[in-house]
Amino acid sequence: MIVLKSAREIEKMKKAGEILASVHRQLSSLIKPGITTWEIDQFVENYLKKSGATPEQKGYKGYQYATCASINDEICHGFPRKEPLKNGDIVTIDMVVNYQGGLADSAWSYGVGDVSDTAKTLLDVTKKALYIGIEQAQPGNRIGDIGHAIQTYVEGEGFSVVREFIGHGIGAVIHEKPDVPHYGLPGKGPRIKEGMVFTIEPMVNVGTHRIKMDNNGWTSSTEDGQLSAQYEHTLAITKDGPVILTNQDEA
Ligand code: MF3
Ligand code: CO
């Protein structure tokens, strides 16, 4: 069942989204060669506490950290760790913020120091794929229109879209209906309606879309060891179109 949200609920999720956006803005200057994803996770947890918010991922299905930190060929659900990031790495930091019961979810990929041309292109294409998906999140369209637009663009750039992890409705809990794949056919899937709140979060790989699972039970990486990136926003659908609740641009 897809739960439609009231204006009041969306307002609370927007507050969570503003805090989350502010975390990512700070991470973009904090992330440099030498910092560890462990330190980043601590920074996020402290900042959320100071803001009166909590890290919703901590304790979710036994997950132990405020953030997911996925480095290079890791696609998602990497554990924060005490090994310094190196010049040329890329890292995706993903988190869900809870502010007074309102949730928001946003992942962002960062280049560490100077990254390769391939990494730069991957980051650009993945971010653009997110915004191309958001453009399709219009009332009256179908969920499949989003994935189709993303897949067409990404594959046209010579990269691939991960299938196993998808966007999702979000509300009282992190994962609700609808499922929002980043691939598929236009005109398929549920009709997009005012009051829906869901994420779009394409994971894009340089090589194969296939994944392998780490034996920690959480972290997935590209099967061929090539790079993967991800950008994610939480959106509320209004009658005038999507509103990005985790928007990082200054108003
Ligand atoms: N933020 C992730 C998502 O986009 C959720 C991760 S669940 C966790 O769906 F437990 F790994 F944190
Ligand atoms: Co998500």
From TrEMBL:
<feature type="domain" description="Peptidase M24">
    <location>
        <begin position="11"/>
        <end position="239"/>
    </location>
</feature>
<keyword id="KW-0479">Metal-binding</keyword>
<protein>
    <recommendedName>
        <fullName>Methionine aminopeptidase</fullName>
        <ecNumber>3.4.11.18</ecNumber>
    </recommendedName>
</protein>
<feature type="binding site">
    <location>
        <position position="175"/>
    </location>
    <ligand>
        <name>substrate</name>
    </ligand>
</feature>
<feature type="binding site">
    <location>
        <position position="168"/>
    </location>
    <ligand>
        <name>a divalent metal cation 2</name>
    </ligand>
</feature>
<keyword id="KW-0645">Protease</keyword>
<dbReference type="InterPro" id="IPR000994">
    <property type="entry name" value="Pept_M24"/>
</dbReference>
<comment type="similarity">
    <text>Belongs to the peptidase M24A family. Methionine aminopeptidase type 1 subfamily.</text>
</comment>
<dbReference type="GO" id="GO:0005829">
    <property type="term" value="C:cytosol"/>
</dbReference>
<dbReference type="GO" id="GO:0004239">
    <property type="term" value="F:initiator methionyl aminopeptidase activity"/>
</dbReference>
<feature type="binding site">
    <location>
        <position position="232"/>
    </location>
    <ligand>
        <name>a divalent metal cation 2</name>
    </ligand>
</feature>
<feature type="binding site">
    <location>
        <position position="105"/>
    </location>
    <ligand>
        <name>a divalent metal cation 1</name>
    </ligand>
</feature>
<feature type="binding site">
    <location>
        <position position="77"/>
    </location>
    <ligand>
        <name>substrate</name>
    </ligand>
</feature>
<dbReference type="InterPro" id="IPR001714">
    <property type="entry name" value="Pept_M24_MAP"/>
</dbReference>
<feature type="binding site">
    <location>
        <position position="105"/>
    </location>
    <ligand>
        <name>a divalent metal cation 2</name>
    </ligand>
</feature>
<dbReference type="GO" id="GO:0070006">
    <property type="term" value="F:metalloaminopeptidase activity"/>
</dbReference>
<dbReference type="GO" id="GO:0006508">
    <property type="term" value="P:proteolysis"/>
</dbReference>
<dbReference type="Pfam" id="PF00557">
    <property type="entry name" value="Peptidase_M24"/>
</dbReference>
<comment type="subunit">
    <text>Monomer.</text>
</comment>
<dbReference type="InterPro" id="IPR036005">
    <property type="entry name" value="Creatinase/aminopeptidase-like"/>
</dbReference>
<keyword id="KW-0378">Hydrolase</keyword>
<dbReference type="GO" id="GO:0046872">
    <property type="term" value="F:metal ion binding"/>
</dbReference>
<feature type="binding site">
    <location>
        <position position="94"/>
    </location>
    <ligand>
        <name>a divalent metal cation 1</name>
    </ligand>
</feature>
<feature type="binding site">
    <location>
        <position position="232"/>
    </location>
    <ligand>
        <name>a divalent metal cation 1</name>
    </ligand>
</feature>
<comment type="function">
    <text>Removes the N-terminal methionine from nascent proteins. The N-terminal methionine is often cleaved when the second residue in the primary sequence is small and uncharged (Met-Ala-, Cys, Gly, Pro, Ser, Thr, or Val). Requires deformylation of the N(alpha)-formylated initiator methionine before it can be hydrolyzed.</text>
</comment>
<feature type="binding site">
    <location>
        <position position="201"/>
    </location>
    <ligand>
        <name>a divalent metal cation 2</name>
    </ligand>
</feature>
<keyword id="KW-0031">Aminopeptidase</keyword>
<dbReference type="InterPro" id="IPR002467">
    <property type="entry name" value="Pept_M24A_MAP1"/>
</dbReference>
